[in-house]
Design brief:
Two copies of one chain form a homodimer.
Chain A: H1 11-18, E1 57-58, H2 74-77, H3 90-99, E2 104-105, H4 108-115, E3 129-130, H5 135-148, E4 152-155, E5 172-175, E6 182-185, E7 191-195, H6 200-208, H7 226-231, H8 239-242, H9 245-248, E8 249-255, E9 261-264, H10 278-281, E10 290-297, E11 304-312, H11 315-329, E12 333-340, H12 341-351, E13 362-370, H13 373-389, E14 395-399, H14 402-413, H15 415-420, E15 424-431, H16 439-448, E16 454-460, E17 465-472, H17 477-483, H18 486-493, H19 518-531
Parallel strand pairs in A: 3-5, 4-5
Antiparallel strand pairs in A: 1-15, 2-3, 6-7, 7-10, 8-9, 8-10, 11-13, 11-14, 12-13, 12-16, 15-17, 16-17
């Protein structure tokens, strides 16, 4: 892609680099950046076996069973009481059929994929799935449900990590799958307006053909919906460069609990007319309204992308590499990810991916995105000379072409998949002061000892976001007891966040108090009561159950 | 500053550049980037004369009067009714004195600067100004005022454009001026936590000494408070590069109307635990709570800054220059500002600043900020070759040293000041689709004819943000009638925003409906009622008066 770059590398660096000219991941086929390898309906028919037996991501290591065994019903596994909503009756189905003819799904086989989350940890028993195509249809449906006191579970691509996207009991599933139209794209400003059900990867392709990129990218891109991304305030891989959706989402159209439509779908970079209502819905996980359309600012497509994959001798060196990198790569730095040695062992063992660099205690993936390939290469060269020369990095490889870039990214992005094949997984997603981020992993490893099979840490170091995962052969109450509330208390002790980017959904709603004070919880409850007085929107999610 | 750059410029460009080696602004002294030249209390003792006679920014061209004449009381000029709040009594003053001994100001002379906005267009008649130092003191004050039903006007640097920062009647002025302490700064992450009354310029200096910059910069930096910046969701000059405060503000501490403290002062890049309450207060102009502390993400200080000042033959060429610029300067572009020929005439006539380039219908100021001076210079050279060669730009000059950069910026930043010396100013701040942005200026010029002295357009083109200003010798109801609601209707017709960055405050609250639908207004009113049921916080601001 940028062949003229090669001669610019200093000779020693070129040797270092060419040491990895053969494919870095022998035995691994090209992988799309999607959960579980590009399945559009993750969790559905995925080749992972074993029954989940805990509130966690638990499965065996088999990858050959043709059909995953049933997941235990959420209402049986968790101490949760159904709230006094109405139950869907024949007359309700008839009413829905009048609003969206032919798009009222009641077939249990079809419903299964929408009742179970992709991690196969929670399972609702909804009897009906609705597939509106327009905002007006969503409005009619919600107005009807509001009048009838029927609970509703809005659902996008169902790729969430915290059980927020599936029903807990028999909530009506309101899917955005057919709301997948681009409404407009402005070729000068890069502002995209689209329906909420557009799949992130398809939007990426759409804007990339027009020389822009989406401001967010995440492993689930092949399945997740932009509406779901916004509803969960997704972070992901481009956060370091393009920031939060709170800055890049310019407008939203939302249907409120009573069916009224709130049209704040502006396409303006700046608008200070009154309170910014769209912010209420970003990250509220479908509990305050149903997002039906999104206006989002897309940055110009970078002309040059490079990925360096480096081995570091310790976490202190990872941190110093990060500081050096910020200073020397500056505005072209677009990702700084890290993973520990156990992560690399897992992707090697379960997915057959080999490390492209010599075995190291830590690995770092650095991505640059810039407008001039030659300049970016020079900056990277200087940086690599510096970190290699000073011993911060002991080995590394660099990719400038699309195929090898994807291969290097796969090492980082497929950790989730490798973990899921390792047994029962206890997942945590925390924000911490960057200098303390790995202490939690080390502490836990010492605390758990042989109780855990693996204790691994990886994540978006540039954002202070650690993905901490613990695996075991099977669910163990004593292991869970050793993990919780320890992890949450440890995080709260550092004034960290117990959910950096995954949200709270159903599974984490009760830990909100570790990161927010009582006054904040009270105001959140008041906002919920204001916007959804009957509580029909995604009940049992985000906010703790009231005492 | 970057002397090694010069030889890299092609010979013809070097000539072009050196044509402006003498100071670009003969006769102009160095100006700080502050309103009216670095006054800490703009509007107070500023050298602008003449009585304001309209709801606008009206004054004569005299710059010699030692004391500005009185501004008409807002309650006399506007059709506004005092709401039934209590009136401050002696016992209240005694109570305040117990909370903040020695910091209860009742001297009319001292109060004057806080009762009148810096544009000298609105004037309250508050009898008391309170200067708390701590959040606890603010909490005690608000709890007291809430119980006593006393209205409160939170005030930062009083640099707002829409009359949001001064009382309308006799509201108690709650100043953040003494809440000016930095609480913490993290030298790796660049996260600054400080009290709300810190002056933006002082924070800039503080973080620049530590190799970071504030993510926002604006003309009023010498006076404005960070709390006020956040409360008004200030945009400014770095928006193009670092985005909205909604993305860069990481946490807030806010005192609610009843005196309770909402501590969401986290210092984390990512935190998805529940609803993001701080967003409610960003841009709500002190009507929902009083911001007492701010946590904000500061980007690394760029190692090289360049400013190019260019002349364009028409607005179509300005737009094409912008597109070319985005493509060729990419990630180093940090500002793209434009001004028309009449703006240049005004800064020349009133401030003695001379154009550094030959007379042109339009001027563009482009700033780059990057991590490697040589690379930035090469990108700029390529870009300038392209726009000069293709005729998009007819003349230009470039500054790489701090002194000349400030001089070029002064041409753009001091337009506000030049306008204020031109007579009665009618000010509009709108967002529009970028390709239509100047049509509004041209339309108005034709519509107003000789009624107006000047109709000028300038602003942040990169953000689609036009500052449209009309001047006349004196206030004229017929001119106002020709402007309004025409400007608002024109903007609404393009789905623009009638307040891009200035907010609504008191003067624009009634035009909110041009940019937001009735359902949004209703929800805003509900939020106000939820957070401030007695309506004591900054009454008569942001939201339209209820029918």
């Amino acid at each position: 892609m940028v062949p003229h770059l090669v001669p610019r590398w200093p000779a020693w660096l070129f040797r270092w680099r060419t040491a990895c000219t053969p494919p870095c991941t022998p035995g691994a086929s090209m992988q799309q950046r999607t959960w579980a390898g590009a399945s559009r309906t993750p969790g559905l028919g995925s080749p992972r076996g074993a029954v989940g037996t805990s509130p966690l991501d638990c499965r065996g290591s088999s990858s050959t069973s043709s059909r995953a065994p049933e997941v235990m019903l959420t209402q049986e596994r968790y101490p949760v009481q159904r709230l006094p909503f109405s139950t869907v009756a024949e007359e309700d189905l008839a009413a829905f059929e009048r609003i969206i003819p032919g798009r009222v799904i009641t077939d249990p086989e079809e419903l299964e994929a929408s009742n179970v989350d992709w991690l196969r940890t929670v399972r609702g028993c909804s009897k009906v799935l609705l597939r509106p195509r327009t905002t007006e249809e969503v409005s009619h449906i919600l107005r009807y449900c509001h009048e009838r006191n029927l609970a509703v579970n809005p659902q996008g691509g169902n790729t969430g990590m915290v059980g927020g996207s599936v029903p807990v009991f028999d909530e009506i599933i309101l899917s955005t799958a057919l709301m997948n139209q681009v409404i407009s794209f402005h070729s000068v400003s890069g502002i995209l307006v689209c329906q909420a059900g557009c799949i992130l990867e398809e939007l990426s392709q759409y804007v990339e053909e027009r020389d822009f990129i989406m401001p967010l990218d995440l492993g689930a891109k092949g399945s997740c919906h932009i509406g779901g991304n916004v509803a969960t305030n997704a972070g992901g891989l481009r956060f370091l460069r393009y920031g939060s959706l709170r800055g890049t989402v310019l407008g939203l159209e939302v249907v409120l609990a009573d069916g009224s439509v709130l049209n704040c779908l502006t396409s303006l970079r700046k608008d200070n007319t009154g309170y910014d209502l769209k912010q209420l819905f970003i990250g509220s996980e479908g509990t305050l309204g149903v997002i039906t359309a999104v206006s989002i600012f897309c940055p110009p497509k970078p002309r040059a992308v490079n990925v360096a994959f480096l081995g570091c001798p310790g976490f202190a060196e990872v941190l110093q590499t990060f500081s050096t990198c910020k200073g020397m790569l500056g505005e072209i730095l677009s990702a700084f990810e890290f993973m520990d040695a156990e992560c690399m062992q897992l992707v090697g063992h379960h997915l057959g991916l080999a490390s492209p660099v010599q075995e190291s205690p830590f690995y770092v993936l650095i991505e640059t995105s810039g407008s001039r390939a030659g300049h970016d290469a020079e900056k990277l060269t200087s940086f690599l000379e510096q970190v290699l020369g000073s011993g911060l990095v002991t080995d590394g490889t660099l990719a400038t072409d699309q195929r090898r870039i994807k291969m290097l990214w796969a090492l980082r992005e497929r950790i989730t998949e490798a973990l899921s094949r390792d047994g029962c997984v206890y997942k945590y997603d925390v924000s911490l002061p960057v200098e303390r981020i790995y202490d939690l992993v080390s502490d836990l490893r010492a605390r758990l000892g042989p109780q855990a099979k693996h204790v691994v840490g990886y994540g978006h170091l540039g954002d202070g976001n650690l993905h901490l995962n613990v695996t075991a052969e099977a669910f163990s109450a004593s292991l869970l007891g050793a993990l919780e509330p320890y992890v949450y208390e440890w995080t709260a002790g550092q004034r960290g966040s117990v959910s950096a980017e995954h949200g709270l959904g159903f599974k984490k709603r009760d830990v909100l108090g570790y990161s927010k004070p009582p006054a904040a919880l009270q105001l959140m409850q008041q906002l919920k009561a204001l916007l959804d007085p009957k509580g029909i929107l995604n009940p049992y999610k985000t906010l703790p159950a009231r005492a």
